[in-house]
Amino acid sequence: MNDPRALFDLTGRVACVTGASSGLGRRAAIVLASAGACVVGVARRPEALAELQAEGGDSVATVVADVADRSRMASLTEEVSASFGAPDIIVHAAGINTREMADNVTAEGWDKTLELNLSAPFFLSQALVPAMKARGWGRIVNFASLQTTRAFPGGIAYGASKAGVGQLTRAMAEAWSADGITANAIGPGFFPTELTQAVFDDTDRATRNAAQTCMNRNGQMEDIDGPILFLCSRASNYVTGQVLMVDGGFTAK
User: Fold this and answer.
1) CATH code, domain with 188
2) How many CB atoms lie within 10 A of CB 177?
3) How confident is the model at residue 193 (pLDDT cuts 50, 70, 90)?
4) Which of these, 11, 5, 69, 75, lies nearest to 39 by C-alpha position?
5) For residue 157, how many C-alpha atoms fall within 13 Å in the half-sphere facing its CB?
6) Helix, strand, or coil here: 106?
7) Which helix (H) or strand (E) holds 121?
């Protein structure tokens, strides 16, 4: 039997991570680079990307871009392929939650949420899939949410987008897995990121959220390392079309 640790080795792979300037996207970029991949981080904030590149060293490159801007998709594909070649792995961690109550949802907030959370993962994947098909190997990892299956106050646009991510993941698997490209999603629970800052700023609310998990705690950044590495590596060769909830058992209760 071969060393099972080799299943998680990403040496020679190229990964593109959106939303890499902060939170779980940044964590994913560092984890994949630590596992041997060359990583291209994509986000809108150049200063934060510079910090990521400084930490990652020669194995990390960055591209400043808004992945929701569909008019830039062709040029973005070229930019993310410029440093290390076309990506084998794409992790869609960029996201937004406007937290508008249903009665107050604006057309602008609705469109912005769906464009970034749902449309961008599809169109960027669509642009990168041909190179994956040519190699007969690829990994697509979307970011779902507790709200993929649960309704939260102030989350109607976000929840609709993340429910869509669940079906998008299954549809991607149906479309592309026969070509060696798996498509899966991670559904994080409550992790301390910029997107959930408002939740963690409310100590009582954060405590209630922790109490709703089976583990009686909220997520810590290192809790995402194993799942992201599993879904991006050979360890998940026969796993596709799945949403892996990394939520401490929140959705099990």
Assistant:
1) 3.40.50.720
2) 17
3) confident
4) 11
5) 23
6) coil
7) helix 120-135
Residues noted as catalytic: 158
Residue 237 located in a structural domain: yes
Q: Considering only CA atoms, which of 166, 178, 168, 182 is closest in space to residue 88?
A: 182
**Residue 198 reports pLDDT greater than 90:** no
Answer whether residue 2 is part of any domain: no
pLDDT of the residue at 3: 84
Residue 174 has phi, psi (to 5 degrees) of: -65, -40
Total number of domains in the chain = 1
Residues 132-180: pLDDT tens digits? 999 999 999 999 999 999 999 999 999 999 999 999 999 999 999 999 9
CA distances from 118 to 44, 68, 125 (A): 17, 9, 11
Q: Nearest CA to 132 among 182, 181, 84?
A: 181
Predicted local confidence at residue 59, as pLDDT: 96
The answer to whether residue 3 is domain-embedded is: no
Indicate the pLDDT class of residue 199, thresholds 50, 70 and 90.
Answer: confident
Closest Cα partner for 63 from 90, 96, 36? 90
Residue 154 lies inside a defined structural domain of this protein: yes
More confident residue, 234 or 197: 234
pTM here is: 0.96
**Residue 130 in contact with residue 174, Cβ under 8 Å?**
no
Quote the domain boundaries for residue 139.
9-252
**Maximum distance among all Cα pairs of the chain, rounded to whole angstroms:** 59
